Amino acid sequence: MTRPAPSPAYDKSFAPRTGQPVSVAPGLVRITAPNASPYTFTGTNSFLVGHERLALLDPGPEDEAHIAALISAIAGRPVDFIILTHTHRDHSALARRMASMLAAPLWFGGPHRLSRPLRRFERNPIRNSCDWDLVPDRTIIDGEVIAAGDIELTVHATPGHCANHLAFGLTGTDILLSGDHIMGWNSTLVSVPDGSMADYLASLEKVIALPYRRYVPAHGGPIADGPVYAKTLLAHRQWRNDQTLAAVRAGARSIGAVVKAIYPTQPLMVRRAAAMTIKAHVEYLEAQGLLRVHRGWFGTRLEA
């Protein structure tokens, strides 16, 4: 018997004002890129942190209009560094070009890497969305404090969505720049082996314990009561674990069969994305000793 279904209060009402600088808080300005899609919602949010001197967070996709919007919002102020929450290309594709244009170093949590090694004959289903060749001028680490002009940011490692994901807390405020780790419009895609469900759940627990109440994500609008919302996301993922285990116990023997049992009426695109995350749940349950997974030439067979 599975636990009661939690209900994350997803907010899809966000009006991005694409290409315009929007003040989120003192010293924090959002510029949303014009790359709306089923996976990016209304587009990737880039942020300027600071007042007279700045940091640029998540420059976003290669797009000339977005470049122009960023340059206009920077308005000639010095940019001390460019930082990334992670190296999926909707966040990072513009990073090296902006670093050159602004004469600013590029800082993030190290080159893109998988959360675990590829198995024989396995492929990373989101390989083309990853920025494999991007190398930081400086690798920033968990707990480090970096100054964006007159504003300090504390680095928080939050792997799960991908291995090098970081969130950033604005020192002296209740604001956490949560990247793709926690978003208000939807739950986060965790696609193995790029991501890891075990890491994602641990990072949720870590963020819930941090002293931040307002989360400002990389897609969609701010989340007013972040820890409460994050607890609901954690319960939702634990519920999916229960659903996955129940489906296998009821006779589902493949990832596709589990997806069909959990998402019987969802359109094909949703079910394709769901299959990636269900695979992450399966690997998590396997590591917990709750599922047996037999991998062979003709696919994966599941047993409870």
Topology:
Elements lengths: L21 E4 L2 E5 L12 E6 L3 E4 L6 H11 L4 E5 L5 H4 L2 H8 L3 E3 L29 E2 L5 E4 L2 E7 L8 E5 L4 E5 L17 H13 L4 E4 L8 H24 L5 H8 L5 H20 L4 E5 L2 E5 L1
Parallel strand pairs: 4-5, 5-6, 6-7, 11-12
Antiparallel strand pairs: 1-2, 2-3, 3-4, 8-9, 9-10, 10-11, 13-14
Helix pairs in contact: 4-5, 5-6, 5-7, 6-7
Keyword list:
304 residues, seven-stranded mixed beta sheet, 7 helices, 14 strands
Quick overview of this protein structure:
By secondary structure, the chain is α/β, with parallel strands linked by helices. The protein has helices at 64-74, 89-92, 95-102, 197-209, 226-249, 255-262, 268-287, and strands spanning 22-25, 28-32, 45-50, 54-57, 79-83, 106-108, 138-139, 145-148, 151-157, 166-170, 175-179, 214-217, 292-296, 299-303.
